[in-house]
Amino acid sequence: MNSQKEKIGDTAFNGSNRSESLLDIIRRCQDGDRKAMEEIYSRYRSSLFNLTYRYTRDLSSAEDLLQDIFIKIFTRITKLRAPEAFRAWVYRTAVNACISSTRKSGRGKHIPLTENDNPDEAEADNSHIRLDMEKAVSILPPKQKAVFLLHDVQGFTHGEIAQVMKWSEGTSKYQLFRARMKIRGHLKDIRP
């Protein structure tokens, strides 16, 4: 059981009380414990914000979307039947919200691939290449964009993506392959 608790842990957990397992926190949250909700929020806030910002490319919209995601998580957590799948469920909720928001608003035309959008740093690391890459990612279809961001930017495995997207691992690999081919084609057209 201990290995299972370690397995479902999120790498985004920083500085939190690790003596309590994620399963225990989820169960407390399902019982309406506000401290448990705060713990989940603090553990996932940063990585989910990065995901929402990559989709919206607008600080205010990303914060609003993040708030909507956490409202969905906390209002639906009592329906979660497999706490072991919590991380996948959280990211599925977030990706679906991002895709829905992008469709509604027409946003998502530009997606930063770095954690920091400091212009001075961008110039230092070939900002024109980064911008071309961001443009290439922004034109991907929603599912390919999701798998690319989750795998190549967030560091998810294909198994984790399969859980998040409710796909097989093979579908995740195929969608990532297609996304990379489209990005490569776009970059080749820009820089022959």
Short descriptors:
single chain; 192 residues; mainly alpha; Rna Polymerase Sigma Factor, Chain: A; Arc Repressor Mutant, subunit A; 2 domains
Largest sheet: none
- What name goes with the CATH superfamily of the largest domain? RNA polymerase sigma factor, region 2, helix turn helix motif
String of helices and strands? HHHHHHHHHH
SS summary, helix count: 10
Ends: how far apart? 53 Å
* Main structural class: mainly alpha
CATH class of the largest domain: Mainly Alpha
Please give a structural write-up.
The structure is a single chain. Residues 1-18, 107-112 and 114-119 have low confidence and may be disordered. Helix 2 (22-30) packs across helix 3, helix 5 packs across helix 9 and helix 7 packs across helix 10 (169-190). The protein is an all-alpha fold and 192 residues long. The protein folds into two domains: 1-107, RNA polymerase sigma factor, region 2, helix turn helix motif (Rna Polymerase Sigma Factor, Chain: A), CATH 1.10.1740; 122-192, Winged helix-like DNA-binding domain superfamily/Winged helix DNA-binding domain (Arc Repressor Mutant, subunit A, Orthogonal Bundle). The chain contains ten helices and no strands.
Protein topology:
Layout: H1 2-7, H2 22-30, H3 34-56, H4 59-76, H5 86-105, H6 119-124, H7 127-138, H8 142-153, H9 158-165, H10 169-190
Helix pairs in contact: 2-3, 3-4, 3-5, 4-5, 5-9, 7-10, 8-10, 9-10
Summarize the structure in short.
This protein is mainly α and 192 residues long. The protein is 71% helix and 0% strand. It has helices spanning 2-7, 22-30, 34-56, 59-76, 86-105, 119-124, 127-138, 142-153, 158-165, 169-190.
